[in-house]
Amino acid sequence: MANRVISVRTVVAVGIGAALLFVLMRFVAVPSGVPNTNLNLGIAVLTVFAAIFGPVAGLLIGFIGHILVDLTWGAVWWSWVIADGAYGLLAGLFWKLYRIEEGGFTVKTAVIFNLSQILSNAAAWVVVAPVLDVLIHKEPANKVFLQGLVAAGLNSAVVLILGTLLALGYSRTRVKAGSLRAE
Predict the structure, then answer these.
(1) By the 8 A CB rule, do 91 and 58 touch?
(2) Is the pTM of this model over 0.85?
């Protein structure tokens, strides 16, 4: 049998992750006070799915989930769709280090998880989204960089709290390698 680029399990995770991201971004968005920028609980789900299933899943979940949200609002805002996909990709790059699936999510791996998500949020929301807003949508730079800074800060805080708890909770449901003994 030929090697698959993406497993069936990952495809299912992308579908579930994109659906969860859509529901949380669309119906549980909390306004931040900065126009078109919300406190987004879906970012924690995207981050945890990327941390479990890797960068391809993170990219697809962020991209598909955000497109679905934008379609229900009437227009796709491509700069932020691309930024969500880029965030998922970046957040999933170090997925093997987090050891969530093996039940090894410890304080050390939580620190690595959070440092990478903070850097990924900064890259996606302080660089990718505002630069694309200026290039694609001809938005004023001062407005979109403020939105990006607020989004990066809020997203980082949500993942730090909710994402870490979700990763820890899921990791604790997994059996650690070598923990079972024959009687």
Answers:
(1) yes
(2) yes
Q: What is the pLDDT of residues 41-74, one digit of tens each?
A: 999 999 999 999 999 999 999 999 999 999 999 9
Residue 179 lies in a domain: no
Cα(68)–Cα(149) distance, integer angstroms: 24
Query: For position 48, which CATH number holds?
Result: 1.10.1760.20
Question: For the chain, how many structural domains are there in total?
Answer: 1
